[in-house]
Amino acid sequence: MRSSRFARIAAAAAGAALLLSACGVTSNSAGQATGSGNAGSATDLRIMVPNTAGGGYDTTARTAAKVMASEKVTPKQPEVYNLAGAGGTVGLARLVNEKGNADLAMLMGLGVVGASYTNKSEAKLTGTTPLAKLIEEPGAIMVPKSSPYQTIDDLVKAWKANPKGVSVGGGSSPGGPDHLLPMQLAQAVGIDPTKVNFVSYDGGGDLLPAILGNKVSVAASGAGEYMKQIESGQIRVLATSGAKRLDGVDAPTLKESGIDLVFTNWRGIVAPPGIDDAARTKWIDTLTKLHESQGWKDALKANGWTDGFMTGDDFASFLKQQDQDVADVLKKLGLA
Q1: Strand partners of residue 109
Q2: CA 107 to CA 49: how far, in whole Å?
Q3: Rounded to an integer, what distance in angstroms lies between the CA atom of residue 219 and that of residue 238?
């Protein structure tokens, strides 16, 4: 039911959070990083988030920044700022244009890979300097508490009867994880993915009020950024897409529900192209110390994230393969 390309994307999971910079960074009124830094210092780091506040990228970046300060990975807490637009490609273009700037890095993930194609961005992640993949995260199929869908079976029955009548919200552009998950789910249950009524929001911060306000029939996204609403009962999770149940979420996996699909998202960090080896090593060392800290281990558990740490050349190879896989999938859907 799933294509091999879909399966490869689903197997690669989660990644996370943060946009760093190595020191001496200032910014103009548009939030642009300027100046040059010393690769041997990690004093004035900045983390650019290419989506709106409140989404998965933003949550991961701000969590990482706090842990870096509390665990003394960096002398002070890195500044986190948002540069949203076009599914993350506005931030990506800014990053790529900062060639050689060792003071800047960007949080990104599967969503930015897809958005670079669906938004026909000239900037691609393969043109950046890969630093590290941090986390993986399963997706969740969610509805507001007032929804008539009590189970994933209820949803699938209604969806198959009227694919266009069920609106599916996601906090990413077409080609991102919140888009790829429902497309794969549709395919797995026998619905033509091209008939899915997908509504794109620029990050989880924008998707949340759409769920709570019944502006979409169902949402597909990572559960971590909606845990408060899930715990309070405002949002009901019908199923999660990982290989096993998600801690803290009382919902079966798609597999448990008889749907042959496992899907995980990932998030990581990249720097501008053309930074020198010393700066690249400094970033990787800093992120490795973050990964090894108890504070980060606690954050993984609290947010329902899976450790997906991978650095340097390994992450570069992973990113190159993801880019190719997403491009192939979007071509099949007529989106690239």
Answers
A1: 267
A2: 6
A3: 10
Q: What is the DSSP string of 47-91?
A: EEESS-TTSHHHHHHHHHHHHHHHTTSSSSPPEEEE---GGGHHH
C-alpha distances (whole Å) from 230 to each of 25, 122, 141, 235, 255 are: 38, 38, 12, 5, 21
Residues 6+ apart with CB under 8 A from 260: 1, 2, 188, 254
* DSSP 8-state assignment for residue 46: E
Whether the CA torsion 133, 306, 114, 94 is positive or negative: it is negative
Crossing angle of helices 4-11 and 312-332, in 10° steps, is: 140
Instruction: Say what the pTM is.
Output: 0.75
Helix intervals (H) in 162-222: 177-189, 204-212
Count, residues in the chain: 336
User: 11-25, 33-47, 194-208, 268-282: which has the minimum mean pLDDT?
Assistant: 11-25
CA atoms in the 13 A half-sphere facing the CB of 17: 35
Phi/psi for 108 (5° steps) reads: -160, 180
- Rounded CA gap, 26 and 94, in Å? 15
pLDDT in tens, 115-137: 999 999 999 999 999 999 999 99
